[in-house]
Amino acid sequence: MNTDPDNLVIVPRRHYGRLIGAALVLLALAAIVHAFVVGQIEWSYVGRFLTVRTIMEGLANTIVMAILAMVLGLALGVLFAIMRLSANPVLSTTALGYIWFFRAIPVLLQLLLWYNLALVFPTIGIPGIASWKTVDAMTPFVAALLGLGIQQGAFTAEVVRAGLLSVDQGQYEAAQTLGMTRLQLLRRIIMPQAMRVIVPPVGNEFIGMVKLTSLASVVQFAEVLHSAQSIYYANSRVIELLLVAAFWYLIVVTVLSLIQGRVEAYFERGVARSPGR
Amino acid sequence: METSLPPVGAVDADHLAPGAPLVLARNVQKHFGAVKVLKGIDLAVQKGEVLCIIGPSGSGKSTFLRCINQLERIDGGALFVSGERVGFRQVGNQLHELDDKAIARQRRSIGMVFQRFNLFPHLTATQNIIEGPVQVLKQPAAQARERAHALLERVGLADKRDAYPSQLSGGQQQRVAIARSLAMQPELLLFDEPTSALDPELVAEVLLVMRDLALTGMTMIVVTHELGFARDVGHRVAFMDQGQIVELGPSQAILTEPKEARTRAFIKAVRH
Questions:
Q1: A209, A69 in Cβ contact below 8 A?
Q2: Which residue of B has its CA nearest to A273?
Q3: Would you call B104 and A170 a contact, using CB atoms and an 8 Å cutoff?
Q4: In B115-226, which ranges are continuous DSSP H helix?
Q5: Do residues A159 and A208 make contact, with C-beta atoms less than 8 angstroms apart?
Q6: d(CA B78, CA A59)
Q7: In this complex, do A272 and B69 lie within 8 Å of one another by their Cβ atoms?
Q8: Could you give the ipTM of this predicted complex?
Q9: Whole-model pTM?
Q10: Do B164 and A170 count as a contact with CB atoms less than 8 A apart?
Q11: A163: which of A47, A260, B180, B268 lies 20 to 30 Å off by Cα?
């Protein structure tokens, strides 16, 4: 028997609490899986409707709307972020008001307001040049785009402002010293550095936007949830079609998360972080 | 080093003909709120001259430097670079503030090297250097890159062309920053405490590059605490305190036998 005090066998400590916890979690997961297997879901319907034309069209509309609303949100966000940082009180206060208003009103309510704009303004246009009947102009597509994009702009403006403020004052001065104009230095020097701070939250918001498009079903915009609903109104397979929609949201968001990682890596260039280089 | 430059008094401020000073300050004033930072600076810097400005922190030396390329706007007096009024356009007996474009144009011929380097972290050394020439001077990228590589060689960093600032030491970053300002082919280089943020062992490599630059005849205004550099490379030294130039003269004279008590006290404090 080895009794040399410098050479004893180490017996690892037992984490009984962790073992019990893991066992309970496994049990719960098994119960959930079992519940879905014996539950009243016709999985064959899920498979059959996964790629039908209506769902595919809805999916395309969801993706297009998410992208366009996000582009509009980003454009407005950059514009209002720069306005908020302006020395002119009219510009900065206007930006503040925009952010205050469109962040405060629920998105669903905004969508309904845009969609029903005709009740307030029967015609819209530029006086003396062109005008349209609001009912014709405010299609579900336009209402969804305005409702989603404009509220997104209010959130994005704050993200962009944080990004702009994160760039060191010395960067502005160095760029000015080279003889750059304000627009040049924003575009070439400040924005690329601000992007490092802006991209992670904007990626997050983009993922949020994909899911927000489902609200546009209330203004009759044919996105993927609306498509699923229109099918289950006919065949009453409610859960199966909701699962179809859920599946596609999972796919789109997964792809977006992967893209976000790539974009973040691009804007991280030049920044030393990983010590193992 | 002997100076063959005319004394300031010899420069006629009102006739900015060829041979006139490259930089001329007349009673330049600047205040931040109620605090007067510059209380009337009079100074003339000749083409090819190296002027070192020394003085305690808070004396206004950096602020004066920043006024020259309009990082600060002056509140009184007048500043001229190459005979052109800095920041304003004279219309009749009024001074009109310049717009963004005109200010940018005036800054082009003035390079600046900062205490904290201020390299663009998202660009490599070469990209940092060509940014100005390509974006502002509209030089073709290939030509600008070639010049950038030559400049990097000149500051001893030929092997760091594609390094990002974060991969360079402070001394290397500052040398890239000098190369970046040289790429604009400036008439005047401003140095704002270029070695104050460096580890002691890296100071010499930057000072050497600056000395070589001075030998090429570059006009330089250097705010510094490096009295050795001021003595060996500077033609003249200005000692500033509390927003004023207390003493100005040939660097040997100022640094070895200052006339003013305040200058003497400061030099003694820095030396020890």
A1: yes
A2: B166
A3: no
A4: 125-135, 141-154, 170-182, 200-215
A5: no
A6: 66
A7: no
A8: 0.89
A9: 0.79
A10: no
A11: B180
